[in-house]
Amino acid sequence: MASDTRRSDNVSGKTLLSAHDPSPVRIFNPAGASSFLLIGDHAGNLVPEGLASLGLPAAELERHIGWDIGIGELGPLLAERLDAVFIRQTYSRLVIDCNRDPARADAMPEVSDLTIVPGNQALTAEQRAARVAAIQVPYQDAIGAELARRDAAGMETILVSLHSFTPAMQAVPRPWQVGVLHDRGNTGFARALIAAFERAGDLTVGDNEPYSMDTIDYTVPRHAYERGRAYAEIEVRQDLIATSQCCIAWAARLAAALGAAADSVNRG
């Protein structure tokens, strides 16, 4: 089951999201009892009606520059298997990247993997603020509200951010099937998750690969670091979750690894 949250923001008399546009946030399995809270910063690739597809053909929005391919399907399957809450973003990372500080230029990139994004050229401060208010703020607020609810109820929470990556970037192959990103704060769970994946014996596991978690990341640092929350950012290679059957298989694999890592940390 999924629920929608909608925020109507008025910036200089103009609302970015029209009545025809879906909510920027979807919450799957909102009553989930698991300690895992799953999030999907780049799970959607829609563009608000008023932004006219950012001037891009549909094929560009279907590429990795438009979203994290496979996560929109994998996330609900994993949430169901774990009985976890999954909070996901609806709109393309090209409209606004919810895993970036909104003050950064690449939060609304003019160019992404060599593709020029016409609708992001020379944005005004007002236009940028409208995207932040209508899309990023509701998404981050939904995560914060769920964490606050769980804290008030005395629930343990492990924050798990789901992402995917291309098999190659600019013709350079990426050998990892899965990566776990971590940096500051409580990194014990992330390290236990790397070990759980490695014990499977059939995976090349990236430790802060193909990306490292650093000052560019926004969501996990915002919600996990200061509170000392256990967390992990998972990257799954996109060719491995390209079909529904693949997503089902990887939901099972991820659920097993997450459970094993949690058990390992609990055993201390």
Task: Describe the overall structure.
This is N-formylglutamate amidohydrolase. The chain has 268 residues and is α/β, with parallel strands linked by helices. The protein has six helices and 14 strands. The strands form four sheets. An eight-stranded mixed beta sheet has the order 1-4-6-5-9-14-12-13, sandwiched between helices. A two-stranded antiparallel sheet has the order 2-3. Helix 4 (188-199) crosses helix 6. It is globular and about 50 Å long.
Throw out a few tags for this protein.
268 residues; alpha/beta; Aminopeptidase; 8-stranded mixed β-sheet; 6 helices; 14 strands; 33% helix; globular
A few lines on this structure:
The chain is α/β, with parallel strands linked by helices. It is built from 6 helices and 14 strands. Helix content is 33%, strand content 20%.
